[in-house]
Amino acid sequence: MSRLTVNNQPVQYRLDPETPLLWALRDASNLTGTKYGCGTGHCGACTVDVDGRAVRSCQTTIGALEGSFVTTIEGLSRDRSHPLQLALLTDNVVQCGFCIPGIVMAASVLLKKDADPSEATIRAAIDNLCRCGIYPRLVESIQRAARNARGEEVVAAAPRPGTDPADAARTVPALVAPSAKLSDR
């Protein structure tokens, strides 16, 4: 039996210790935000945060993670309020969305370690594959998230799931300078 803390909840997996973390998360914990991509650790769709490290969950067994703290995309923010999620949505980075959970998790680990990453640092840390080709917008969006986390830029929350598009269009503009008031725009 492997004991982990997943999204701040203690979990005991009654699975073979050689079971990849990806399948324990998806099949036993029903945390399907972590995606199966290549199965070889190359694409990064399965990336999760394990003890502050970006880990490819398809290549890591639950037995090797005994006592570890695991955060998945579901544990990062259920309401999309994490600075990375807000920035990616604001900048329209997400296209098909399949790779996004792994990218968000890799970027969240990066921002925990470096509050003001350079373009080169981001490109080195985020080696996830995206077939839609979001890379040009991704770097700026991660930098926007870092500015938001540092309090230098405010990124408003995205509309809640299920919001009528007509209602979403009437919301406050997504980017607001910290000192600006609505009446100043």
UniProtKB/TrEMBL annotation:
Record Pfam families: Fer2, Fer2_2
Keyword Iron belongs to the record: yes
Keyword terms of this UniProt record: 2Fe-2S, Iron, Iron-sulfur, Metal-binding, Oxidoreductase
PANTHER family attached to this UniProt entry: BLR6218 PROTEIN (PTHR44379:SF2), OXIDOREDUCTASE WITH IRON-SULFUR SUBUNIT (PTHR44379)
Name assigned to this protein: 2Fe-2S iron-sulfur cluster binding domain-containing protein
PROSITE patterns hit by this protein: 2FE2S_FER_1 (PS00197), 2FE2S_FER_2 (PS51085)
Top-level taxon of origin: Bacteria
Matches recorded under CDD domains: fer2
